[in-house]
Amino acid sequence: MIAVIGLLLGFLVSALFLIQGKRRRSNDNQEKKSNEPVEVVRPKSYSKSEVAEHNKRNDCWVIIKDRVYDVTSYVEEHPGGDAILDHAGDDSTDGFFGPQHATRVFDMIEDFYIGELLK
Predict the structure, then answer these.
(1) What is the mean pLDDT of the chain?
(2) Residue 9: pLDDT band by 50, 70, 90 thresholds?
(3) 84/29 Cα distance (integer angstroms)
(4) Could you give the residue ranges of the DSSP H alpha helices within the chain?
(5) pLDDT digit string (tens) for 73-94?
(6) What mean pLDDT comes out for the span 93-108?
(7) Which residues pair with 46 in a beta bridge?
(8) Residue 45 in contact with residue 115, Cβ under 8 Å?
(9) What confidence score (pLDDT) does residue 23 get?
(10) Nearest-10 Cα torsion for 31, 34, 36, 41
(11) In terms of Cα–Cα distance, which of 77, 70, 75, 93 is closest to 85?
């Protein structure tokens, strides 16, 4: 019994040292990166006519609040079926903010963001 407890304690202490070591290395890497110049990446801009070309099930972009999203990979998973295609290649802001959507879609949509709509 004492041997089992000793093994468990040894395992826990080893795990703590490994975790601390990873944290220390991670912090070192962050410090090195902070000294490097930061490159600002501007989002790509798309015209309404460019977005309009992507209006099919296998190539589906939508505009939501002047931001462009490529939702092609989500079309088949969309719980509302083909409703997502109603505004393919067009502004989908009203439909997106409709009562049918749970609040989690507001976080999910950012995974599909590709740029801004030209004004």
Answers:
(1) 82
(2) low
(3) 42
(4) 2-34, 48-52, 93-96, 105-108
(5) 999 999 889 999 999 999 999 9
(6) 87
(7) 117
(8) yes
(9) 57
(10) 140
(11) 75
The string over 51-87, giving b where at least 16 C-beta atoms fall within 10 Å of a residue's C-beta and e elsewhere, is: beebeeeeebbbbbeebbbbbbeebeeeeeeeebbeb
pLDDT-based confidence at residue 26 (cuts at 50, 70, 90):
low
**C-beta atoms surrounding 45 within 10 Å:** 12
| Sole residue written with tokens 């099919």 | 56
In one letter, which amino acid is 80? G
Residues in Cβ contact with 85 at an 8 Å cutoff, skipping those fewer than 6 apart? 57, 60, 75
The one-letter amino acid code at 93 reads: T
pLDDT at 103: 81
Tokens of 99: 């009562």
C-alpha angle 86/90/92, rounded to 5°? 65
Q: Give residue 78's identity as a one-letter amino acid code.
A: H
- Tokens for 89, please give them: 């290649």
Q: What is the pTM of this model?
A: 0.66
Return the residue matching tokens 């790509």. 44
What's phi and psi for 115, nearest 5 deg?
165, -170
